[in-house]
Amino acid sequence: MPDLILDASSKPPVIRRVVNGKRIVEKIPRTAQDPRRPGARLRRWVRMLDSYGNDVFAVLTTAAAEAVPEGKYANTQRRKFRKHGWFPFGQCPIALLSTGQLRKSALLTQWKDGERPCDPNKCDGEHPCKHAVAEQVARQDVNRVNDAAQADAWKSGEMKMAEANHAAMQEQTKAITEALTNKLGSSDNTDLIQALPEMIAAAIAAAQKGGKR
User: Fold this and answer.
1) 57 lies in the same domain as 137
2) Helix (H) or strand (E) holding 59
3) 186 pLDDT exceeds 70?
4) Domain final position from 109, 137, 153
5) Which has the closest alpha carbon to 53: 84, 13, 17?
């Protein structure tokens, strides 16, 4: 069998796009050429929406010796995609449900019975359908909540105490600001000057008391 990777294009494919105002440059696996079938392009990757709501390029081959994307590794990858609810971002998830390529339990969005799939000729990876976009947003929202909970669980006791002290200081600052606003509304600012030390001392004492809990 010929070494198919030697027949790949000389330059690796690069995708440039703008997401949320940020310029992203992404290199993707090469598309090999099979010398036994001139002109045939072997696509070694698929564009998928993963379980976290990320639009990713997932490879279907491991090396040049398995450049054909219908091999054992590719089939294993596709089984994993289905198990974890990954689906091609350029396809409608409602249509994939009807063909069994996607399990209903894998979707976070709930659609009414009889929801019609989108026209496959009007959606692709660059222009996903409304069902795919809704599922992406739902997955990203869940992942964001899970990440925040996990990050909070990893915080040390000192970090949590520091955050509590910071929150207490913010509350005290808000109270002082409101008090100053009320004082500035009066015609005599002498009272303001006299009241400042007391308010600052009270804020410091309250913050120190909160930090000892």
Assistant:
1) yes
2) strand 55-59
3) no
4) 153
5) 84
